[in-house]
Specification:
Layout: E1 9-13, H1 19-28, E2 34-38, H2 50-66, E3 71-74, H3 77-90, E4 96-97, H4 103-109, E5 114-119, H5 121-124, H6 127-136, E6 141-146, H7 150-155, H8 162-177, E7 182-185, H9 194-201, E8 206-208, H10 211-224, E9 237-241, E10 257-261
Parallel strand pairs: 1-2, 1-3, 2-9, 3-4, 5-6, 5-7, 7-8, 9-10
Helix pairs in contact: 1-10, 2-3, 8-9
Amino acid sequence: MQAGNNHPIGVFDSGIGGLSVANAIFSLLPHESIVYFADTGRVPYGPRPKAEIRRFAHEIAAFLIGQGCKLLVVACNTVTAVALEDLRQQWPDIPIVGMEPAVKPAAAATRNNKVGVLATQVTITSERFAQLMDRYTVGVHVWANPCLGLVPLIEAGKMDDPETEALLHEIVDPMLAEGVDTLVLGCTHYPFIQPLLRRMVGSEVEIIDPSPAVARQVKRRLEALHLAAHPDHVPDYRFFASGATTDLALLTPIPFFIDAITG
């Protein structure tokens, strides 16, 4: 057992959305410590220039590595789309796991070959997304909608709010009118509105949340690299943010200690 095995997993996002991924890791890997960074001072990332997003990602990754993290999870589809490979080149010795819209499982799950993808503008227009579409959606009709304005509502804690519901209707109703039977949550913020979305679309539409699959990938990477924490390890959980956040107790069962608000 190497000394570094009990070091934490670093998870970061533009805001609190990546907690959906941290929650899945916490559930699957209860002996692993987690350090979470929410860049709430600069959220949302979706409308920002790609070069700026890359700079933010490098700053946060460097911070988490400075905290001793043994593996990083880019719990943000937008950052994954534009900066994941840059991060891997910058830190080749640190395993880095990213997010991808769950296009492949959606294409396998759809019964009528009609899939809707909810994501940010940057994700939808990225080369990475185009490659996923080319590879996995042959014969499948895909409607991808940039959900402008949705992330700020979730960051504000409005997960079940009339304003959020109205915006979701604008986004989802055209997809439902086309007969979409499978929806992909292509942003880590969106699982927090899944109960609202479920009420809107009914039980016949499958909603795919990629967070559990990401947690399984983290587990595979840790085991392959012999970095899994010892079963007797008592984990700790630290939360950092660059700005204000909503009440974490509403979003996560993880008993985070809020170390600091960093600028």
